[in-house]
Amino acid sequence: MRLVMGVLCAVVMLTAAGCSKHIGYNTPESKFIYYDGPDVTRIEIHKSTRRMYLFHHDEVLKAYGVELGFAPVGDKQIEGDGRTPEGRYAINRRNPNSRFYLSLGISYPNARDRAEATALGKSAGGDIFIHGTPHAFRHADDWTQGCIAVTNAEMRQVYAMVQNGTIIDIFP
């Protein structure tokens, strides 16, 4: 009987392990979580619908609502315009000590962005990130300086799932 119960217990434990979630906490109080699921191969931001999608090839792994720059319509042209850039970029840095919880840097500005700003006699700016929020819940209005904001709980997931070098496409 003990042998049967031991085998049954082992089968249940192995089955449960196979069904485990891909995201989990390192410790309950930690803002860092682990992710052992499929690689995020690209990110899409759709400004018009305020949505961000994390993809593994053509499969959507996660979708989030987002908040954008305080003047979200149109492509970012110059520093301080409050717009979120549009185009193809890459995640190029990580900030575990961001003043907005956690953040992932976006490779803005690219050569085209710098050329457009220079033609206007201005700076393109920089420091565009996907980051958390100082608000306890989703804010009703777009409020960033051009960044993409999600809730802190969502940012924990994004930070764990997305690696440097991941392509990000930002659409109008």
Descriptive labels:
L,D-transpeptidase catalytic domain-like; globular; alpha+beta; two-stranded antiparallel sheet; 3 helices; 172 residues
Average pLDDT over all residues: 87
Give the CA-based shape.
globular
Number of helices: 3
Structural class, judged by helices and strands? alpha+beta
Q: Main sheet?
A: 8 strands, mixed
Distance between the termini: 65 Å
Strand percentage: 25-35%
CATH overall fold name: L,D-transpeptidase catalytic domain-like
Order of helices and strands: HEEEEEEEHEEHE
CATH superfamily assignment? L,D-transpeptidase catalytic domain-like
As residue ranges, the low-confidence spans are: 1-21
Structural domain count: 1
Helix fraction bin: 10-25%
Strand order in the sheet with the most strands: 5-4-3-10-6-7-8-9
CATH class, named Mainly Beta
- Give the total of beta strands: 10
Named CATH architecture:
Beta Barrel
| Radius of gyration computed on alpha carbons | 20 Å
Indicate the multimeric state.
single chain
